[in-house]
Amino acid sequence: MGCGWRTVQWKTEMNTSMTNTPPVLTVDGLRVEIPTRRGTLLALDNISFSIAPGEILGMVGESGAGKSLTGMAILGLLDPPGRVAAGEIRLGERRLDNLSQREMRKIRGKEIGAIFQDPLMSLNPLLQIGDQLVETILTHLPVTHEQAVQRALGLMHAVGIPAPEARFESFPHQFSGGMRQRIVIALALCAEPQLVVADEPTTALDVSIQAQVLQLLRTLCRDKGTAMLLVTHDMGVIAETADRVAVMYAGRIVEIGPVEDVIRNPVHPYTRGLMGAIPTLKPVTGPLAQIDGAMPRLNARPTGCAFNPRCPNVMDRCREQSPAITARTPRHDVACWLATETRQDAEVTA
Amino acid sequence: MTTLTQDTVASMAGALPPAPTRAAARGANADAGTISLDVQNLTRHFPIGSGLFRGALGGHQPVVKAVDGVSFAIRRGETFSLVGESGCGKSTLARLVAGLDKATSGTTRFADAANKGHRVQMIFQDPYASLNPRYRVGTAIAEPIRFQKLLPEAQVMPRVHELLQQVGLAPADALKFPHEFSGGQRQRVSIARALAGNPTFLVCDEPTSALDVSVQAQILNLLRQLQERLGLTCLFISHNLAVINYVSHDVGVMYLGRLVEVAPTRTLFEAPKHPYTQLLLAALPQLDSRGRDKSPITGEIPSPLKPPPGCTFHPRCPHAMERCRSENPQLLPQPDGAQIACHAVQERRIPVLFHPTPALAHA
Q1: CA distance B319 to chain A (A)
Q2: Which of B182, B246, B297 sits opposite A294 (nearest CB)?
Q3: Whole-angstrom distance, CA of residue B209 vs CA of residue A4
Q4: Fewest Cβ atoms nearer than 10 Å: which of A56, A111, A193, B205?
Q5: pLDDT over 60 at B325, yes or no
């Protein structure tokens, strides 16, 4: 098969781009709080990561872990009263977290594209597809109407809509779910953004259509050097699409690293449990690995490590102090006392 | 016609039916191999268009053939799963089997239908929608017991507590309301309520699709364990092939209202024969399928209003020929126990792909 060669070539491109060019997106110590009548809830705590040009960073976690919230914070679309309480979000050199809504509106759509789960929510049901694309292009790029139409047709072709001229005047309801999501992707990419935030882009689609859309996203990122934050609950989607993955639990990143490392050698007990809990197509040999209990709610976060009540390797220290995320290898970071201690042991024996 | 007798007056004395041990291999059980449910030519057509003009348009009432001539059988104590993409008719089929909807034609015959104590229960996808928010959980679980008068009133609450423990909750939870539980716990309550009616047959419609992976694993383990302990026969519906692999003995793949492949689970996953099954398996994102060179399925599911003539899969099928465009293939048995509805397979035009588990290909 030719795929081995393709993977290798892609990897080398990735490495050079990562060493030579500064990241497109840097999130540094992001903290999001939601003030309520019963006190302030800490929704995101010390989130730090960066995405290089052409790189896809997957963000995975259970519902309520804060993965969508991270995407929303980057897009400047946090629902009040939620707010960025600390940390920085930078697009290239430019800080985004302290921009006004007005300034953010110029960046969204132009420099950051967004793709959400439900394509019907992102499209205006009363406007023809072509007009929606042309409007977005004219808003963000200095082109004439005629050029915008040509660009829109080109985009529709690029995202795999057959006979774009014929579908240009169609309305969203005349398309199937998969086709609608392709149009949303075309909308997100129409100003050639540096970064795309894709929040569960294929969750509403069937597997066969999902495979088509994921393939499309991957090719577009590769060809145009667009960085992407891919938020999903499906580890399989991450494995097939992303270059690196950040695993979130209760508002924190507990493990982040290259997809191969995290899937083959998960270090955090939560990631390890998660991997064992995913049913596969292999012959069934026994019960699925089970993480008992459920993720704590925001108002009932335990002291110390948030995972400690469910952790099979819990130690006294985990119940008192929350572990900081630390590098295990240069590109693989883990927030777990166990990982820190085994490393210290290893250093001592060495 | 549908012979679904809900035995309402039987009062079961014992709390639980004796737990038969379901052996891992088929045939070890005393009544293994006997058919529990036999479905023949089941069809459900939904007429569409406004009721006002029904019939006034000259008898050309358009219909959606949600389920179109489906036949299969489920052996006692086993799980038969239906898999397919949205709109293929799997949930309609589940509702027909559970007796929640009437078939247009065809039969569902339960072998135990004549026996006292034969009951069908259903577990739904959304545990938020299937529990009454104003009922305490204990009342909700007790309802089937009281309604069917299974136990004298004094024994109802002890049985509810026992059921809660059986699904991994505490007896004290009986006094709580559904909103006090997480999604996974709510699905446990739904399972307890389904078991409260002492069912012999369980219909599970996407029971874990609304749950997170770690919670899904808990519920799948629980369902398997309960099935083995209680000797339940199950019809399991899911769009997730990996979940299907974990729970089923036999699998039926549906496409536009028809079964295109029925096979024992291992046969289906190791040697999928129908082109649609092959494409579904290839499209499933896998943990260790990184860098897999994919040839994604082209095209989409056609509108069920205007299904293509002949084999409904032919517009997307890489092996389609003239015959596929005109003649609807029948479900025919294969040497290895599978049943396939495909002209190309029948004419041996598709090489018998021996798929190793696709996940292992690039390990």
Answers
A1: 17
A2: B182
A3: 34
A4: A111
A5: yes
Buried b / exposed e across B109-125, counting CB within 10 Å, b at 16+? bbbbbeeeebbbbbbbb
Least confident of A233-242, B13-22, B240-249: B13-22
CB A253 within 8 A of CB A47: yes
Q: Residue B152's pLDDT is what?
A: 93
**What is the rounded distance in angstroms from the CA atom of residue A216 to the CA atom of residue A202?**
11
Decide if B241 touches A, using CB distance below 8 A. Answer: yes
Which residues 14-53 of chain A have a CB within 8 Å of chain B? none
> Which one of A108-117, A289-298, B206-215, B347-356 scores highest in mean pLDDT?
A108-117
**C-beta atoms of A208 and B296 within 8 A:** yes
Q: In chain B, which residue's Cα lies nearest the Cα of A216?
A: B296
B170 at interface of A, judged by CB pairs closer than 8 A: no
Task: Give how far Cα B326 sits from Cα of B23, B41, B255, B301, B311, Å.
Answer: 45, 21, 17, 18, 7
Interface residue B271 vs chain A (CB under 8 A) = no
pLDDT digits (tens, 9 = 90+) for B236-268: 999 999 999 999 999 999 999 999 999 999 999
Residues 304-333 of A with CB under 8 A from B: none
Nearest-CB residue to B293 (from A3, A214, A282):
A3
What is the strand order of the sheet B105-110 is part of?
B63-75, B35-47, B105-110
A201: which chain B residues are within 8 Å (Cβ-Cβ)?
Answer: none
A208/B286 Cβ within 8 A: no
Q: Where in chain B is the domain with CATH 3.40.50.300?
A: 35-47+61-254
Let me know: does A298 contact A251? Beta carbons within 8 Å. Answer: yes
Whole-complex ipTM: 0.79
What CA–CA distance (Å, rounded) separates B355 from B275?
Answer: 12
User: Does residue B200 carry a pLDDT above 70?
Assistant: yes
Could you give the count of Cα atoms lying within 13 Å of A57 in the half-sphere of its Cβ?
29
Give the chain B residue whose CA is nearest to the CA of A202: B285
What average pLDDT does the segment A323-339 reach? 90
Residues in B closer than 8 angstroms to A208, CB to CB, are: 85, 279-280, 283, 296-297, 300
Chain A CB contacts of B300 under 8 Å are 176, 178-179, 208-209
Set of chain A residues whose Cβ sits within 8 Å of the Cβ of B284? 207, 236, 281
Q: Model's pTM, two decimal places?
A: 0.82
C-alpha of B330 from chain center = 22
**Contact residues, A window 203-262, toward B, CB-based 8 Å cutoff:** 206-212, 214-215, 233-237, 239-241, 259-260
CATH for B35-47+61-254, options being 3.40.630.40, 3.90.1150.10, 2.102.10.10, 3.40.50.300: 3.40.50.300
pLDDT class of B58 with cuts at 50, 70, 90? low
CA distance A104 to chain B (A): 33
Task: Give the pLDDT score at A144.
Answer: 95
Alpha-carbon gap, residue B181 to B179, rounded angstroms: 5
Check B214 against A273: CB less than 8 A apart.
yes
To probe the interface with A, which of B214, B276, B289 has the most A CB atoms within 10 Å? B214
The pLDDT, as a whole number, for residue B265 is: 94
User: Mean pLDDT in chain B?
Assistant: 82
What band does B28 get if pLDDT is binned at 50, 70 and 90? very low
Rounded mean pLDDT, B68-87: 92
- Residues 6 or more apart whose CB falls under 8 angstroms from that of B320 comprise B311, B313, B314, B344
Lowest mean pLDDT among A158-172, B42-56, B60-74: B42-56
CB atoms within 10 A of CB A267: 23
